[in-house]
From TrEMBL:
<dbReference type="Pfam" id="PF02585">
    <property type="entry name" value="PIG-L"/>
</dbReference>
<keyword id="KW-0862">Zinc</keyword>
<dbReference type="InterPro" id="IPR024078">
    <property type="entry name" value="LmbE-like_dom_sf"/>
</dbReference>
<dbReference type="GO" id="GO:0016137">
    <property type="term" value="P:glycoside metabolic process"/>
</dbReference>
<dbReference type="GO" id="GO:0016811">
    <property type="term" value="F:hydrolase activity, acting on carbon-nitrogen (but not peptide) bonds, in linear amides"/>
</dbReference>
<dbReference type="InterPro" id="IPR003737">
    <property type="entry name" value="GlcNAc_PI_deacetylase-related"/>
</dbReference>
<protein>
    <submittedName>
        <fullName>PIG-L family deacetylase</fullName>
    </submittedName>
</protein>
Length: 238
């Protein structure tokens, strides 16, 4: 039996929690393997609560954010690592793209999740998209014989941004996370530096569940997450 593998890449250490923790938990609960990679800790732009402490330092903020993200990942059954590239601005070069591509070759994910290509409010999120998109293409080698190590093409989806209407996000997939919502809530609770987002994303999961109920007629869906496919999925029949 093939174990399904999921790779989730965020610009900052908490991005995966708000937007995809439920899908990750659903994936791992079904027996899949999941890895979370964040390109930065969000130590400058997304850790305001931590900077209220007198004498705070960048290294201590990174340490706290690492502990929080590790706990959140554990809550949904995923492994966690951070590339620690810095934030606001997040800058990534060819070596960073190759680093992620090499990780993808080793892990060979069946599905990859990251940010949408556009975000007028956050300069780091589009950078993450570009890094992931390039790394994914390098990993598969354009699906032809290549002079370097490759991995099979993965499904490629973006998760819902904070302001979907202004980011060109159009959901094409809803994941029913009703049965794992407590795991997502536990992951959100781990991110104390951004506690103000917990209610927003709990309510967003209810909103998307309403949409999923309308699509399916399944009245049992109480919480859902939304995603948009970047490449078509292939099925044997409709």
């Amino acid at each position: 039996m093939t174990v399904r593998r999921m790779l989730v890449v965020g610009a900052h250490s908490a991005d995966f929690v708000w937007r995809a923790a439920g899908a990750i938990a659903k994936h791992t609960r079904a027996g899949g393997e999941a890895r979370v990679v964040t390109l930065s800790y969000g130590e400058r732009g997304e850790s305001g609560e931590l900077w209220r402490e007198p004498g705070q330092t960048v290294e201590n903020v990174k340490r706290i954010r690492h502990e929080e993200a590790t706990a959140a990942s554990k809550a949904v059954g995923a492994a966690y690592e951070c590339f620690d590239l810095g934030d606001y601005p997040l800058r990534a070069d060819g070596d960073d793209v190759e680093r992620l591509a090499e990780l993808m070759r080793d892990f060979a994910p069946h599905v990859v999740l990251t940010h949408p290509e556009k975000d007028p409010f956050n300069p780091d999120h589009p950078v993450a998209y570009q890094v992931v998109s390039q790394a994914r293409l390098l990993t598969s080698g354009a699906v032809v014989e290549a002079g370097f190590r490759t991995a099979p093409p993965s499904e490629f989806l973006v998760f819902e941004p904070h302001q979907p209407d202004l980011c060109g996000f159009v959901p094409t997939v809803f994941v029913d996370i009703t049965e794992v919502f407590e795991a997502k809530a536990q992951a959100m609770a781990a991110m104390s530096a951004q506690a103000y987002l917990r209610q927003y994303y709990a309510e967003r999961a209810e909103h998307r569940a309403n949409h999923a109920r309308k699509v399916t007629g399944n009245k049992e869906i109480r919480h859902a997450e939304a995603f948009q496919r970047m490449v078509p999925n292939v099925v044997g029949a409709l």
